[in-house]
Amino acid sequence: MDTLFAPPGERWQAVSPKLRTLRRLLLVSWLGVLGLASSIVLIVLVAWWIGVLLLVVVGAVLLWGWWLIGRNWQSWGYAEREDDLLVTHGVMFKTLVVVPYGRMQFVDVTAGPLDRKFGIAKLQLHTATPASDAEIPGLTPEEAAQLRDRLAALGEARAAGL
Fold this sequence. Notes:
Layout: E1 13-14, H1 17-45, H2 48-75, E2 77-80, E3 84-89, E4 95-100, E5 104-110, H3 113-118, E6 121-127, E7 134-139, H4 141-159
Antiparallel strand pairs: 1-2, 2-3, 3-4, 5-6, 6-7
Helix pairs in contact: 1-2
Pfam families: bPH_2
Protein name: PH domain-containing protein
Transmembrane segments: 25-43, 49-69
């Protein structure tokens, strides 16, 4: 990792591989089904070669998306430090968010139906400045709950001195 976006010496935690699996399943479900249906309609109603061409394009986009999802999943990480939480992500456009514990107002844990089916949740940190909010997707429910409780306790302890 680039030292600007992932300072060395920190113990970086990765997100669950289930996040990658879920996103790839969604990619194949939506793009694959829509591409196949569109190709069949084009083959039957317009010209067979246009439908086949669309299938080739959809296949290429699926492969590219599969690869991108893997790279994006690898880019997510977080590190707990003494006074703040670091969250980094992004491949092309890298982001590092530093959230001081004393600035946190509240911590959310959310999980939609598919997230729950795959056993993952998203932790959202809220501060007074929306630009410094951070989220960590793809945490196991246990990890999300433990992190939420630790961050809430640290936030209360650090905010008490203000």
